[in-house]
């Protein structure tokens, strides 16, 4: 078989691809899953898209998804016709050769390009024979960064067409405990809000997003092309007041340090604002608005300075002054009169800002220099390296420089390098209606310094990521990872030394030692958690690799000569070892060329049972029936089943018991003619043995653990439905351990659990109908089901079935109705 090669690269580079006009109507994305697992802020997301070519000729099928910019792609595979095509990460030059060859043969190539503020688009395509299927699977990894007191996991969903089997599953596992969790983003609003289920128990949280096909067409910003938007999960973890948490596994550790119960350090801040001609119009106006907000937020013990510049410098005042009411009033007057004119002398302006800070030494304070500009230096010193060198010498590591690049004309590389050389960061401010909020938001991140001169030391560890930080701000987090030399807890001793404001003893509870000159030491051997469990063992090592590569890439930007080459070499080696697609590497995907014409599993179209997974899915394909052992011979007492009722306001969920062989009303949705009943299993050690769904008068779906039967009207009977059915008003999808049922605005997942060799069913409402008239055990408040257990209840609404403590009460009080109302 001939093979073509496609390269996925972070830099689109030289080649303008001929955009293939794809005939979208001819292929069908029949399944689209996004699965994101976050463990200790490290998110691994897998996007799986299954596509069928429904035509009787071969078609080029496209896979196009958006992922966060901060993430590294670590895996891409395609399954076509029994073959797996794995992407291989290679050094850029090596991959480039194959790329060029493929393109010269006229073959298409995949690439990653930047879209909007936070996303990158990954695109590739493959030719699929008539009536064949392809599965695309993309994995990316990202260390979530804490900003303004929260972590943000952004999931972009844009399958390009409505998809019958669409779902997003998010699982968060944080040893420190989850403090709060919210679901935001365009996809969490209005008509889609009911498709989101969220569960949070102490250290774990789950978010499920299961919109029905109907909803995918009718939501905001959705249309015939289906959904297009973000699901954003925002959360924070509980804080240990001292050293934070340190996780250790297989010779690697990661340390999250974010003490919160500290006193803020007064700051000396100088704003250097570009007022050159290019700031004309909205940019200047937004800058004025942002400045006014920022001035309002200064604390009285802060000192500040304000200079504007074009080809010359305008001082509000020549030195820093206290942020008292009178000075703020005067500064606001000055700020509201900033107007654009002239050219851009960045060198002079920044050096003047440095001079002002240097001339204003103040004990127990944190100095910060913030530059806002929208263009290249055009007057005074214009040689970029010269400016960087001047600024670096003037600052001499005494305080951080933050550069805000406004709009797209700005030389962002220059600003980024200058910030990194001076312990700061650069941020792009997008020219948009919310630019003033972006400016203000950035300022808020650095508004509350809590520590300066933070030095993290780890005896007994090596190959550490960055350990010295000039400042630590409230709402942020310092993360350090490394390798433990001697794999023994006794010799591994982490410690943090930093400077804070002077406090009267006994300082704060966070600190175990207060030295002279407000030096603080944080140390706590209890903070170390050895991870021995089943949870992805390699994940701490990957956090280390991710951080190391990110920091080496930054170093490469700042260094020169052999040091630069060395940083680049190390970053490349690690990227290859951990299979990260970084700016130094590319992913090469080999794919089939031409079509293999023998059709072994040509799927039958129409009403007959259909295969919903390609045979090519290899390990993912269904592997026959699960075992379902016989009935135990001996008589048993009727079983009690414990139901769990989760309410957001109570610290513990409620639970109640139902005993005996009963049929329960699970859901009544009269306006849709939908009703769902479940038979509890009174003999076996299980939950429901059978669930029956009626839709209107003529459609019935009968589900047990072994088979699904669909009856439509008087005539059609489909026994032993293995994979699923797509009927006009109802979709049933059978996956490995769950059955997904969607009807109009309702979507239900029935999990198949196994206990002691017996299988049983657990229904969960993933998509609550909007209608108030819905009733039944699932139709009331958020209710989840659980199986009886003495001291607690097992939550079978979650695949991994965690155990919760609960308040046991009578069914009547929990449901606020007579139990008989739910029994048929
Ligand atoms: C999601 O991914 C995790 C980790 O790979 C896996 O354990 C889990 O079963 C997946 N969940 C689903 C719903 O596929
Ligand atoms: C494809 O199907 C159409 C309509 O069913 C038919 O007219 C056409 O000849 C078919 N083409 C091939 C290549 O079989
Ligand atoms: C830091 O932020 C937290 C949460 O936003 C807040 O409760 C606390 O008061 C802040 N600390 C200081 C010193 O401002
Ligand atoms: C540190 O990492 C480098 C390469 O990543 C490796 O060669 C070296 O052995 C590591 N050092 C230790 C002490 O493990
Ligand atoms: C970190 O700071 C400490 C103390 O200020 C210093 O001794 C050490 O050399 C610094 N380390 C790095 C890597 O800069
Ligand atoms: C992990 O270690 C803890 C205590 O150190 C122990 O209780 C637990 O059983 C261990 N888990 C596994 C999977 O070994
Ligand atoms: C739960 O709390 C929210 C706000 O905190 C409130 O609006 C809601 O009524 C409460 N629900 C119950 C059942 O008490
Ligand atoms: C809800 O049901 C009641 C009777 O069961 C009916 O009177 C009412 O119109 C229904 N409401 C809606 C919105 O369908």
Structural class: alpha+beta
Q: What is the CATH first-level class name of the largest domain?
A: Mainly Beta
Attached small molecules: 2-acetamido-2-deoxy-beta-D-glucopyranose
- Average pLDDT figure: 80
> Which geometry do the CA atoms define?
globular
Determine the N-to-C terminus distance.
61 Å
Pfam families: VIT, VWA
Domain VWFA: 268-446
InterPro entries: ITIH, VIT, VWF_A, vWFA_dom_sf
Biased composition (Basic and acidic residues): 604-613
Keywords:
824 residues, alpha+beta, Immunoglobulin-like, Rossmann fold, 4 domains, ten-stranded mixed β-sheet, seven-stranded mixed β-sheet, 17% helix, globular, disordered N terminus, binds 2-acetamido-2-deoxy-beta-D-glucopyranose
Verbal overview:
- This protein is an alpha+beta fold.
- The protein folds into four domains: 7-175 and 177-238 and 580-601, Immunoglobulin-like, CATH 2.60.40; 245-262 and 450-531, no CATH class; 267-447, 3-Layer(aba) Sandwich (Rossmann fold), CATH 3.40.50; 618-822, no CATH class.
- Helices cover 17% and strands 39% of the residues.
- The chain is built from twelve helices and 50 strands.
- It has a ten-stranded mixed sheet with strand order 1-33-6-5-9-3-2-11-14-13. Strands 18, 19, 20, 21, 22, 23 and 24 form a seven-stranded mixed sheet that branches.
- α4 (282-297) packs parallel to α9, α7 (384-395) packs parallel to α8 and α10 (539-558) packs antiparallel against α11.
- The model is unreliable at 1-23, 594-636 and 717-721 (pLDDT under 50).
- The structure holds 2-acetamido-2-deoxy-beta-D-glucopyranose (8 copies).
- One 2-acetamido-2-deoxy-beta-D-glucopyranose binds next to loops.
């Amino acid at each position: 078989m001939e093979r073509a090669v496609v390269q996925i690269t972070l830099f689109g580079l030289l080649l303008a691809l001929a955009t293939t006009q794809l005939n979208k109507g001819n292929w069908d994305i029949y399944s689209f899953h996004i699965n994101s697992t976050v463990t200790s802020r490290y998110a691994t997301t897998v996007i799986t898209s299954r596509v069928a070519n429904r035509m009787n000729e071969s078609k080029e099928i496209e896979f196009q998804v958006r992922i966060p910019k901060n993430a590294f792609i670590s895996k891409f595979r395609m399954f076509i016709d029994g073959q797996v095509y794995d992407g291989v990460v290679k050094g850029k030059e090596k991959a480039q050769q194959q790329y060029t060859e493929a393109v010269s043969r006229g073959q298409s190539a995949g690439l990653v390009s930047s879209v909007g503020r936070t996303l990158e688009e990954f695109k590739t395509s493959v030719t699929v024979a008539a009536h064949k299927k392809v599965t695309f699977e993309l994995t990316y990894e990202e260390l979530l960064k804490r900003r303004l007191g929260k972590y943000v996991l952004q999931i972009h969903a844009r399958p390009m067409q409505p998809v019958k089997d669409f779902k997003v599953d998010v699982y968060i596992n944080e040893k420190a405990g989850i403090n709060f969790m919210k679901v935001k983003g365009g996809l969490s609003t209005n008509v889609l809000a009911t498709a989101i289920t969220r569960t949070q128990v102490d250290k774990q949280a789950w978010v499920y997003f299961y919109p029905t096909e109907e909803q995918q067409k009718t939501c905001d910003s959705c249309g015939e092309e289906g959904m297009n938007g973000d699901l954003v999960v925002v959360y924070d973890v509980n804080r240990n007041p001292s050293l934070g948490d340190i996780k250790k596994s297989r010779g690697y550790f990661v340390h999250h340090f974010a003490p919160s119960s500290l006193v803020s350090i007064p700051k000396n801040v100088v704003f250097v604002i570009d007022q050159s001609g290019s700031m004309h119009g909205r940019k200047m106006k937004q800058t004025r608005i942002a400045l006014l907000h920022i001035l309002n937020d200064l604390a009285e013990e802060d000192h500040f300075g304000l200079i504007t510049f074009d080809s010359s410098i305008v001082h509000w005042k020549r030195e820093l002054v206290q942020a008292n009411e009178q000075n703020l009033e005067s500064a606001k007057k000055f700020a509201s009169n900033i107007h654009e004119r002239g050219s851009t002398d960045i060198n002079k302006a920044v050096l003047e800002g440095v001079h002002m800070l240097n001339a204003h030494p103040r004990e127990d304070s944190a100095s910060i220099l913030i530059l806002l500009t929208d263009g290249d230096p055009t007057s005074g010193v214009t040689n970029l390296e010269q400016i960087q060198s001047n600024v670096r010498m003037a600052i001499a590591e005494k305080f951080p420089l933050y550069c805000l690049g406004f709009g797209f004309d700005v030389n962002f590389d220059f600003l980024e390098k200058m910030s990194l050389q001076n312990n700061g960061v650069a941020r792009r401010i997008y020219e948009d209606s919310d630019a003033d909020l972006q400016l203000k938001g950035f300022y808020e991140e650095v508004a509350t310094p809590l520590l300066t001169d933070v030095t993290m030391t780890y005896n007994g560890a090596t190959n550490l990521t960055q350990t010295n930080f000039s400042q630590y701000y409230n709402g942020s987090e310092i993360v350090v990872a490394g390798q433990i030399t001697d794999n023994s807890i006794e010799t591994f001793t982490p410690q943090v030394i930093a400077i804070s404001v002077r406090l009267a003893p006994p300082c704060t509870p966070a600190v175990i030692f207060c030295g002279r000159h407000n030096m603080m030491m944080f140390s706590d051997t209890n903070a170390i958690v050895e991870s021995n469990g089943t949870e992805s063992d390699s994940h701490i090592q990957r956090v280390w690799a991710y951080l190391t590569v990110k920091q080496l890439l930054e170093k490469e930007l700042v260094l020169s000569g052999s040091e630069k080459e060395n940083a680049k070499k190390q970053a490349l080696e690690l990227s290859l070892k951990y299979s990260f697609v970084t700016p130094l590497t590319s992913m090469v995907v080999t794919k089939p060329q031409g079509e293999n014409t023998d059709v072994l599993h040509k799927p039958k179209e129409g009403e007959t049972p259909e295969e919903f997974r390609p045979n090519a899915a290899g390990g993912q394909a269904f592997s026959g029936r699960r075992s379902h052992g016989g009935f135990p011979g001996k008589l048993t007492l009727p079983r009690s089943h414990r139901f769990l009722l989760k309410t957001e306001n109570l610290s513990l969920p409620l639970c109640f018991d139902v005993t005996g062989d009963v049929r329960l009303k699970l859901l009544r949705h009269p306006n849709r003619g939908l009703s769902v009943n479940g038979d509890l299993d009174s003999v076996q050690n299980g939950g429901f043995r059978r669930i029956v769904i009626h839709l209107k008068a003529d459609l019935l779906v009968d589900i047990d653990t072994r088979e699904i039967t669909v009856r439509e009207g008087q005539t059609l009977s489909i026994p032993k439905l293995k994979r699923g059915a797509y009927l006009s008003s109802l979709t049933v999808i059978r996956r490995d351990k769950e059955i997904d049922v969607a009807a109009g605005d309702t979507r239900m997942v029935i999990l198949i659990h196994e206990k002691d060799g017996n299988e049983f069913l657990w229904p969960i409402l993933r998509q609550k109908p909007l209608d108030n008239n819905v009733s039944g055990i699932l139709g009331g408040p958020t209710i989840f089901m659980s199986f009886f257990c003495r001291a607690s209840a097992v939550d079978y609404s979650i695949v991994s079935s965690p155990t919760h403590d609960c308040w046991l009460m009578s069914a009547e009080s929990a449901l606020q109705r007579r139990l008989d109302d739910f029994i048929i």
